[in-house]
Give the backbone structure.
Amino acid sequence: MGKAAKLLKPMEAEAYLAWEEAQPLRHELVEGVPYAMAGASRVHNLIVGNLYAFLRPHARSRGCRIYTETVKLRVSERTFYYPDLIVVCAGEPPHTHYEEAPCLVVEVLSEATEAIDRREKLWRYREIPSLQGYLLVESRAPRVEAYARGVEGWLYTLHEEGAVEVPCLGVSLPLEAIYEGVPLEGSGGAY
């Protein structure tokens, strides 16, 4: 005989935050439903580390905070994500475990997360009033897709060489800095 069905009830923010603190794995909350997160690859971790190392001094010089992977971003009443990198230049955070007013969000693409990062998160992140830029960083080849808030709306640019402009920090981020020491598929070694 099968197990009894359980009624799925969406979690409210405070219940999720308390529950998440006690979990051995991280969970994102999407419209009140928690989803376990997959572990990251070595390449993913190296790219996030490179991004943090390059952007941190620029963020600090502007009085901004920068976070990687373990600080939640609240995007609505019942949706929280763990972006790969967040830059916040607003006042004090509203809570000890999340931010809600980023100027930059970065997601490193993987096969497991790419569709969500390109559709669901792109749509939700662009609704954040403080957000000035969203970067999608490829983990298999040197490639960055940049979305920047402009006067007339969101602008998209593709970068496969050179540098990416980081809107809220006013800095050019070279692809070489992102992929330094990162073994890419088919490259025969590190970038």
Remarks:
- The radius of gyration is 17 Å.
- The chain has four helices and 13 strands.
- Residues 40-179 form a domain with the tt1808, chain A fold (CATH 3.90.1570.10).
